[in-house]
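queue> holo job accepted (cytidine-5'-monophosphate)
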Amino acid sequence: MDAPIPDLAERADACAQRLRSADSVVLASHIDADGLTSAAIAASALERAGIPFRTVFSKQLDAEEIAGIAELEPDTALFTDFGSGQLDIIAEHEAAGDFTPVIADHHQPATADDADGEAAEGADAEAPETEFHLNPLLFGINGASELSGAGASYALARALEPEGGDNRDLAALAVVGAVGDMQASGGELHGANERIVEEGVAADALETGTDLAMYGKQTRPLPKLLEYSSDVNIPGISNDESGALRFLDELDLDLKSDGEWRRWVDLDEEEQSEVSNALIQHAIQKGVPTDKIEGLAATSYTLTDESVGTELRDASEFSTLLNATARYERADVGLAVCLGDRGPALERARQLLRDHRRNLSEGIQWVEEEGVNREENLQWFHAEDRIRETIVGIVAGMAVGADGVDRGLPIVAFAEKSEEEVKVSSRGTHSLVRKGLDLSQVMGEASRAVGGDGGGHDVAAGATVPAGTEAEFVERADDIVGEQLS
Ligand code: C5P
Ligand code: C5P
Ligand code: C5P
Ligand code: ZN
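queue> job finished
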């Protein structure tokens, strides 16, 4: 970056220096879209810099996982998209001489008093610290909305550029990571993320534009695009198969080719604007409020090197494709796609995507049918083994706004992890965060009070707790949220 954030760039330089002098590096990353793109960015930069490394993935970085990394006896361990929340454990390994840690992350750092369950207040002065720690939160940048793990990894990649090298092409993956972590709030990326977008555009890896804010513009046939898109609810079209078909049939446009419905990307600009205008007219007639209608337009992030009409062309569809791999124990497939495999890995990822989509839609349907339980300050559901623990957070987030789920309260979701352990995911809204909500603190404190552990971001966080402690956990979490919002 053209030193827009000088301190962050300086820390990235120090981290790069350390990596260049390493004999062996283990690169460890998280199993979601941001984690995969983080790993791909770091791997590409290490490769281009001629630094030998191997890559491992982890669902949840805990003491056991970190010990496993130490057993690989790396000289340097590079953690991407996690590590900050586990600084205490990582620092112990560093002190024992197991490895030198380099961390490129955006989660809230563990604090010194986390261990005894005392109130933790973000990155305070007593927190365990390590020299090569690259985290936007340490430099006044919001880690939940302005820079993702992939963004932190991208800053590192820029610092790792060999003489005459240019890693700006990796900005495209950094944008996929940020979009995958839901950082494009209000329809576009903000802050440090915007800087990365500019670099990607300058490097011809990205294009941006104002476009219809619907998921699936590259791959979905038009009727499905309209029917499935519910971020802005348009009566008579959203979740309405025949309504969506009727709407398209009534337009004076040739929207089929060889009898098959065309996709959004198959339309030329004029056709796109006719469909958009008709949609807006329809929404106005159905009484959709103006601010909601404005939400029909958003910034699109297009990966220019990818083929038109593929999941990879659009940052949002790309990120879902990646979640479909890593959250089902196939991070290797997602990583290969990020690194350029357009053959077997992409084909496998597409199969996994079909299953992932089905799981998401069945999960949301289940939540709608069963309903949520309301406490004073939050709402919750327990999916037991009906929703996979690796996607229960995505389902919880997508369920907000569904029938019977209150947009004004944070949502907490439980799912079985094993016989002994339960996964907790929580999601809030930016408007609740502005009122004081910090789910990272809620998940951290409530979980430690019942013998578990957790953390994350203010707007989205998670935890693992012992089975059977859910009721006590809910009570604690409800109290903490109450204090935060009071
Ligand atoms: O581990 P990590 O940081 O990658 O995950 C962030 C999670 O938080 C994602 O699942 C993302 O969808 C969620 N999130 C959210 N709403 C936001 C920001 C993040 O649901 N506004
Ligand atoms: O939580 P995470 O960032 O992984 O979720 C990906 C997001 O992509 C969902 O929250 C949802 O907004 C969107 N999505 C969608 N339709 C799908 C899959 C994902 O709208 N079939
Ligand atoms: O797993 P889930 O999608 O609910 O995670 C939401 C956020 O909380 C992610 O950023 C994840 O990395 C973080 N998290 C954490 N510690 C946990 C569980 C989740 O930091 N024990
Ligand atoms: Zn992340």
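queue> Residues 180, 182, 215, 320, 323, 357, 360, 394, 397-398 surround cytidine-5'-monophosphate (ligand 2) (CB under 6 Å).
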